[in-house]
Design goal:
Layout: H1 2-12, H2 20-32, H3 34-59, E1 64-65, E2 73-77, H4 79-85, H5 91-101, E3 106-107, E4 118-122, H6 127-156
Antiparallel strand pairs: 1-2, 2-4, 3-4
Amino acid sequence: GLRARAVRGVNTDEVAGPNDFAVFSTIAAYADGGAWLDDLCRVLQRNKDYVSTQLDEHAHDMLHMVASDSTYLAWIDCSGLLDRVGDANAERFCGFLRSHTGLVLSYGGIYGENGSRFVRMNLGTRADLVIGGTARLLAGAAATTISRIASSLRVSSHGAHRFRFSPARRR
C-alpha cells in the first residue's frame, strides 16, 4: 500500500536513515575534518589542472575540459573529436576507450541530452591514475581519429581495389 510505496521512494533516492557509523563519521568530519578537506581540495585542483593542461596542449581541437568548482568529476567536451569523426554523441567514444585502452569513462548523455557530447572522468584519485588515464584518453582520441579516417577511406573509395600498391616486380 501507501507505506510500501513511500519506503520504495525513499530508498530509490538513497535517503533512507543513516546507520550508526554514519552518524559518528559525520560528527567527526564536521568537528575535525578541516585539514583533510583542505588537502583534498588541493589534490582535486592539482588533478583538474593537470588534465586541463594536457588536453589543451595535446588535443585542444578535439577535447576540452569544462571548468568546474564543486565536483571531483571532469566534464570533458568531445565536440571537436566527434565532429572530426562524424559522430553525434560520445557514447561510442566511451566504448572505444574501454575496448582499446582499458580506460572507463562515463558517457555524459546518461544525464540528459545536453551531456551527449561529453565524457566524465573521476579526478578524486591518486595522481598516477589521473596521469595514466589522461594518457589513455589522449591516445584513444588519436586512435579514434586515425581509425575513422582509415574507415572512411575504405568505404568512400569505390574501385580502390584497382589501385593497390605493391612492390615493383623484378625482371
